[in-house]
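Running this now, will post back.
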Amino acid sequence: MALPDELGAVVRDYLADRPDAPWRTFARDVGVAGLLVPEEHGGAGCGPAETAAVAEELGRALSPHPFLQTAVMAVEALMSCEAFHLLPALADGSVTATVVLPGDGALRLESGLLTGVVPYAMAGELVLLYVDGLLVAAVPARRRTYRTMDESRPLQELTFQGTPVRRLGDGASWARVRDLGIAALAAEQVGGARRCLETAVEHAKRRQQFGRPIGSFQAIKHKLADLLLLVESARSAAGAAARDEMFAAIAGSYCTEAYLAVAGENIQIHGGIGITWEHPAHRYLKRATSDAQLFGPPQAHRARLVAHALG
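Update: finished.
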């Protein structure tokens, strides 16, 4: 497998050439679906650095591919309970998956039957759920896909009505699955924020007022410098996010707020054109806003960080 920077460059070029390629094609051509899957189970056996490189490029392109829930969270969940027989289908991209964490829905498991509703879940064919201390797989009785503000990340409502489950193993790993999801999301946020900064700089160099590029004005210079600091600091936080719960909480808080700030300032720097429907700036702000709720708002990450730091 290529080094993280080289892998990121491959993903960026592929998404630029084939932005509408379906997940199965993307997974087959680039191999990203099996990035964290051990080689003996059909994957590449890579680690957090490669995951972050791919996630950053997906965030930069606002890709709708289910990398976060399928290639990161579901793979970690299955490996943690040694459900290795399900990994090859995820690794080759033939099956997508989603993971429901404790507290994501009102669910009850009685005599092997699951009942309840998960109001918001990322889209995936194989549904893995942490319920009553177990990791189980179940087929929802009904799925309802939302029309969301951020259409680049589909969300679904999952309903279970006395649904039989397949017990996969102990559910003690859910916190690690969540933290790896936060780490991958943080890398996505860095990619989106970096792209916003790039487009803001390009516009500031090109747009002229009073016979000068607006980037030559001190107010714009300072604004862009502040955004650069946010992006680089967020990248550092995202790079450390996979280490443990504390670093994941730091990244979950900082990268979320950094992306929101950079996406908002990108619109401001673009001026009138930045608020038009035709310009892509609004899409990044929508993704930043939806990302801010995916694993809880920044305040929730900071509360978890305080609890962790104080024991």
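Residues 8 and 222 are 30 Å apart (CA to CA). More later if anyone needs it.
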